[in-house]
Structure formats: C-alpha cells, structure tokens
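Anyone up for a design puzzle?
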C-alpha cells in the first residue's frame, strides 16, 4: 500500500546530527508515512548512517547523489518530491533539528484546512511546510538556489493566492552548533539570502526599509550583523546572474504584506474559509501546540 504522506529531507554533510534528527521523526510516524532522504554527495560519513537506516526501516528511502556544485538546495528538494510516493509531502525538516512528536497532528490539521478550503495550497508552518505532491510539481518547482529557495517558491504561490502562512507553537528545535561552524553557517546563510533578494531586483533602500521593520524583534548584535552584510551582498549580486521575476511572483514588499494579511491560527484559517475551528480531533498535547488562540 502506498503511503499517504512523504517526509522529504535533504542532507549534505550533517553526520554529526543526522541520526539524532532522523530518529526524532522515525519514532513518531506510522504506516501512513514514508521518509525520503536525498543525500547531495556527502563526504563526512553521512552516507553510511543513511544506508544503515535504509536497511533497517522499510518506510525509509535513500536517494544518494554524486556531488555536483552546480546543483543547489532547490534542485535537491525537487528530486526529493519527484521520488515521493505519498499524495502529500512535508518539507523543510532539516537534519540538524529535533522534531517534536506532532508531525501526525500537523498532517491532520493540513487535511482539515484543505477539505474546508476546497483548493490546493502550501501550508507554511513553523519550520515545516506541507502540500500536495502533484500541486508542488506543477506550480513549482523550486528554483536552483542554495538559500531562499523556499521564500522564492512561497512568493510565486502567493501570486496565485495558494500560499497559506500558519501560526502555531514551534515544535522543532535546532541542535546547537558550537564554535566556528555555528558562526560560519550564520554568515554564509545570511549573505546568500541577501544576495538572492538583490538578484530579484530589490533595491538597497527598499531592502533597508524592510530590515528596519524587523528591528523590534532583533537584538542589537543581530541588527549590526545584518546591516554590515547589506552592502557586501549588494555588490556580490552584481556579479551573479539575475533571478528573473516569474509571472505571478510577488515583489519583495508585496510578499511581506501578503504574508501579514493571510497568516492565521488554525481556528482563524478555518473560520476564514467558512468552517469550524474546533480542535477536538487532536490529542490534548497537540491542541496546546496548534490552538494558539487559547495558549
């Protein structure tokens, strides 16, 4: 019997946290789920860990790739979706995260909203996304970006009113990195995000305006760090190919406004689509995660 849900995961050189992270998923799923892991040519021992999990679990499927520096995370995500057998896919679960025991509940919430809304969409929660497999392959796929591939897809889906931001308690926590690796990742990820934003045609003044809107939730160290990255990222973007704006893709600022307008808790989203926001179908501990209005 084919699985109903496919959890699509991408890995590259995360051997230090890989088994701990994947175990937090394996320990909570049932036979409606499969796990697809695409390894993007790791050379740190990740493949050996994944091969053992593949042998141990019938629902676990490893897709090993040879390393290709031209293939960014966006294309790797597409490969994971293409190899999924489930009708629905869960995305953006990372191999350095511990996943709380609420994935089955998240899937049930998604199905309830989908049944009430009556049309396809991507549900974007806190560090976990979910959508129909065929829907993503037809409306996407991801573009070949290292970072920001998710936001780029969201912006395109928002242009068709099929991106739905979902507010709930975050049940996913990052496994802490230490020392050099921690700061290296922060710098490279932030820099790449900013470069991609500028490659879409965002100007410096527009970017700074949106940065200042977030200052109230950032520490002064993070403010200084991000401001220091803006000009180098802008200069670097001149030497990279532009990211052609796709028809239906919202501008940087329009997407931010759309997200603020459309986001909602479970009860808010259900009521928006004419349904009942009651969460009695969930376990008590899950209601504490998804019933934000009462938490």
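Challenge accepted. My sequence:
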């Amino acid at each position: 019997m084919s699985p109903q849900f496919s959890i699509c995961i991408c890995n590259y050189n995360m051997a230090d946290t890989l088994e701990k992270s994947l175990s937090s998923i394996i320990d909570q799923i049932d036979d409606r789920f499969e796990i697809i892991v695409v390894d993007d040519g790791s050379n740190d021992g990740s493949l050996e860990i994944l091969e053992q999990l593949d042998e141990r679990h019938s629902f676990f499927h490893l897709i090993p790739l040879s390393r290709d520096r031209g293939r960014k995370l966006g294309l790797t995500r597409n490969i994971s979706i293409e190899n999924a057998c489930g009708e629905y896919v869960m995305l953006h679960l990372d191999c350095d995260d511990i996943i709380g025991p609420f994935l089955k509940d998240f899937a049930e919430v998604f199905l309830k909203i989908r049944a009430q809304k009556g049309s396809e969409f991507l549900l974007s929660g806190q560090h976990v996304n979910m959508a129909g497999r065929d829907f993503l392959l037809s409306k996407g796929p991801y573009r070949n970006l290292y970072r920001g591939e998710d936001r780029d897809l969201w912006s395109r889906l928002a242009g068709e009113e099929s991106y739905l931001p979902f507010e709930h308690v975050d049940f996913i926590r990052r496994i802490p990195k230490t020392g050099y690796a921690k700061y290296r990742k922060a710098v490279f990820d932030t820099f790449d995000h900013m470069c991609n934003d500028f490659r879409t045609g965002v100007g410096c003044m527009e970017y700074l305006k949106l940065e200042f809107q977030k200052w109230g939730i950032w520490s002064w160290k993070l403010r200084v760090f991000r401001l220091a990255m803006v000009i180098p990222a802008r200069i670097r973007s001149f030497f990279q190919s532009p990211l052609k704006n796709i028809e239906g893709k919202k501008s940087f600022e329009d997407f931010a406004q759309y997200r603020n307008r459309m986001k909602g808790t479970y009860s808010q989203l259900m009521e928006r689509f004419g349904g009942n926001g009651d969460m009695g179908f969930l376990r008590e501990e899950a209601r504490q995660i998804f019933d934000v209005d009462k938490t």
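A detail worth pointing out: The beta strands are 5-11, 33-39, 60-64, 88-91, 97-99, 122-124, 129-132, 163-165, 172-174.
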